[in-house]
Amino acid sequence: MSYGLLVAGTTSDAGKSVVTAGICRWLARRGVKVAPFKAQNMSNNSAIAIRADGTGGEIGRAQALQAAACGLEPDVRFNPVLLKPGSDLSSQVVLLGDAVDHITAENFRSLKPRLAETAFATLAELRAEYEVVVCEGAGSPAEINLRDADFVNMGLARQAGLPVVVVGDIDRGGVFASFYGTLALLDAADQALLSGFIVNKFRGSLDLLAPGLRTLEQLTGRPVLGTLPFDLDLWLDAEDSLAYGRVLGRPAAPRGEQWLRVAVVRLPRVSNATDAEALAVEPGVAVRFTAEPAEVAAADLVVLPGSKSTVADLAWLRETGLADAVLAHAAAGRPVLGICGGYQMLARTIRDDVESRAGEVAGLGLLDVDVEFAPRKVLGRPVGTALDTEVRGYEIHHGRISRMGRLSPFVGDDGVSDGPVFGTHWHGAFESDEFRRRFLRLAAGLAGRDGFEPAPDTDFAAVRQATVDRLGDLVEAHLDTDALWQLIEQGPPAGLPAIAPGAASGATP
Fold first, then answer.
1. Which among 46, 129, 262, 424 counts the fewest CB atoms within 10 Å?
2. Keywords on this record (predicted)?
């Protein structure tokens, strides 16, 4: 028999992804054959799953992390519907790994039945294969404007008979109102599935929190299954770590005499900017996401990351003055790195009749290459050599290099460099430890930071594994795992009370 659970949240970024990963890790440690599932994700941070026939497909990066927590390779079934926003009004639809359409306000409802059918069938397939499937919701289950066509939150739970736990971020404030309001806005049949709450990102004394937890339980008839502490070390693969002006992670002191300052341009449609995480694990490397030309000018290394809308984000670079700052940085002989869409921006020309349909536009001209977009994406997990060492990465892009000048090779078949400017279509290349060290040493020399020295023993894969283990530790230490397992095994408890909005008005703590 297959068991399951849906982890929902009061808001986006409440912690659904990390709680799901932690529960997956806890179950895997118990010897349970467990898999993650998110019916629909909306994110430009994606990972590559390799199918049995050797072809690649896209899933949300969070589901790849959850797969690692289960001890599994990524599988396109773990995230059957992925929406990749290209603008405020349109998203690319990736169905079971392949880009198949675009969703807009006009065709939203007509596409929903197909997406829902795929999601429901895929979950049923996984439940036949695994002992437990831990599902992650999207946004909030109380988005009542979307409930009639929902197949991600309560619609999925109702269809599959899943118990639901709701995660709330107490660090944002208002968590008790969010928990109660989420439950109150659901109809009676949905409320019957909502089985408990999890408080996330708490810092302070639990004694001060306890009265509120007791009152919430009295008002709702549902238990609080635990309170997870705020943990500064949980920043890998977290989309909310990409905030403007924020130094990524907690960089250790340099091994040499100098720091290396890295400015990653926070594009409006940034895609897979998690590439910068591998740089940020190095002692002495301070990585900051920025949209300020002055911070670009002050940096030692400037990174243009991936973009879901290369042409539109390139126009934004010019409008904000960031393009001029990048050009001045390169003209001064200091290093500039472009990854995927960022690489395409460094080109002489970009011809895009696929994403923006803008035709031919001028790039920044820092690399003597021309880019042309093709309808079908390049998807893969290639292996190669750069800077005389092995490099592994993954590719997700429509753009191809259609013409290349006499340039030095860099990473990948079409990656190039010219003096201080480097470009590659490969994401994840800097997770290759020796390549990362050699590139940082090269970049530091170009930036005049001769006192910077990469650490010889930083292991990015071990850092990511430690993150997954830490999530499992937090679940075991701070959640009522007996109650959680009972929900997974037995489903929603019978007789959960239904409440109506405003029912708490006369309550006393």
1. 129
2. Cobalamin biosynthesis, Glutamine amidotransferase
